[in-house]
# Entry
Amino acid sequence: MVYQIYPRSFADADGDGVGDLKGIRRHLDHLTWLGVDAVWLSPFFRSPMADFGYDVADYCDVDPLFGTLVDFDSLLAEAHDRGLRVLIDWVPNHTSDQHPWFQESRSSRFSAKRDWYVWRDRPNNWKAAFDETQSAWTWDETTGQYYLHLFLPEQPDLNWANPEVVEAMHGVLRFWLDRGVDGFRVDVVHGLGKDPNFPDAPPQTADRAWSGQNDHESTHAILRDLRRLVDAYPGDRVLVGEVYLLSTRQVAAYYGHGDELHLAFNFPPLFAPWESAAWRENVDQVVKELDPRGAWPTWVLSNHDNSRHRTRYGSEARARAAAVLLLTLRGTPFVYAGEELGLEEAWVPPERQVDPGGRDGCRAPIPWDASSGHGWAGEDPWLPWPPEPDARNAAAQREDEDSVLQLYWRLLAARLESVALRLGSWTALPSPPGVLAYEREAEHDRRTVLVNYADDTVEVYVAGSWTIRVASDGHGEGRGYEGILGPSQALVLMPTVPG
Ligand code: NOJ
# Structure
């Protein structure tokens, strides 16, 4: 399981109200106790924070807000001592407009770095993300041309068709690989290669951001080079790509033939409603597109860009059932910090809203305990607390065996003891409407999983004799399965051992 940390919101050690690397170090215990295999740290690099770190001004240094390179090295060493792998977030599609590369590029049409970014005399019809009424091109007064930015004007797109850009960005990867990181979550990876003719978006999708549509074949050669670079390092280093194309068929192509991304995010399930038929369709799609390539799936319910699934699905019972699903489907699950506490979206009053993409609610600080500062060194974090921090905090839930946190713990323990859950095949089982039922199997190890999407009790027959290993509501664990699934309940069953 990979655990995503959004550093601003995880834990504050220096009292400025913003999370930092030292804060993360203080809570490594939480992660190892839970059973996390790897952490992914969202960007902590030097940045003017127009997009809260996804606008990087120096890829090879830590922003003072988060600490120093020495703090990073200490965090990495301590994580490794505990057997935790560390992935960092690499943002190769764009830099900050404050990056010295862009400053030089925009200084003159004849600058040596002019071609490191995308400059044109005339814009096409591409729209920027966050505000789709805005063009993805901004006019630069000084040099009289437009530059491209799939996101904010403060995030100019790099020109990956320029070999000097490729070399400089490879240098960034080497910098961190040499320091010992275990890999990268690669931001907007499908954005890197662009059609050199910059054709208009088709009329049907012209009003949608181009960042969700760009899917040019030249990206694949870029990825093969990245893969070679990363694989040349000792140990299992990994590239996890954010392919924000909402088609599993398109996402699958980014695994190449085992020579591009090791893993790719597949977001259609994240946007699927909490309905068994929709999920069955999504899982079938993953099997259909990924299996023939030998590609290993990933599963995500929440992250720093989307409303938390506890809020989207509308009840804690459903969020618990979703946790069972997330941690038992075939593939690598990604858990977004705080979902293991069952956190909801925070309500952020207009005067405290800061994100240009309206994503503040899922970025609220993590409450560690019931004290007034909830374990944060400062009393006033950069965003308000999520609902019920007095009860939904890590310390309280660790003591409460009925908590969401304890459910995640039991699910991860169940994975650890079962090769079927970690690596096994996935086979759908017959089930009544509203229920998703499947079997995982490997090396004679078997588990059956039942997920009731409906809010009613339902009978689900499963052939054979089964014991409830994990129940999303904790009911009946250790007892025989009697063919009944409670409202919004999900179960992990293991074969009953006779005797
Ligand atoms: C995807 C990241 O997850 C998001 O937070 C960011 O705003 C965009 N890429 C731009 O870097």
